[in-house]
Specification:
By secondary structure, the chain is α+β, with helices and mostly antiparallel strands. It has one domain: Pnp Oxidase, Chain A. It has 5 helices and 8 strands, in the order E-H-E-E-E-E-H-E-E-H-E-H-H. A hairpin with a 7-residue loop joins strand 6 and strand 7.
Length: 185
Amino acid sequence: MGKSYATIDDTLGAFIASQYVFFVATAPVGAAGHVNLSPKGLDTFRILGPTTIAYLDFVGSGAETIAHLRENGRIVVMLCAFDGPPKIVRLYGRGTVAEPGDPEFAALREQFPPTRAVRSVIRVELDRITDSCGYGVPRYRYEGPRTQLNEWATRKGDDGVRAYQSEHNVHSIDGLPALRWVERE
């Protein structure tokens, strides 16, 4: 039933582009650290090449993905069909974090529409691409994007968002280094 792919072909790319939500999982090296799984949405996912993807990383209450990528780079992205034919796609690879002020940030950021509350762009070089049936995934109807994140960032303003990140995003819940750019400014 499941299939492995050497690259993201046109059919797989069309499936990926049609999904409204994706999930990102990372873990620290040590067994005592916390595994992280985060849902993502909005217009934040891009296929940059046959084995390269990227997504916008927004301000959040934690910075686990950033910390884990800085420590070991391991990441898996999962997309599920919640409508149409059942399918699950998993994209495994090594991720890097591009923050404002990093040389590659501006070029990566240009791949996405303008939006507030962006703290980094996560870029992933894929080393395994698979799909599976998704028969156990229920059907859900998409109603539209949520607007609260941009509204929150607008109310806080740039200084308020930076202060929030300085308080909540510089280290992971396990104490690993995460966001750097707020400390540089």
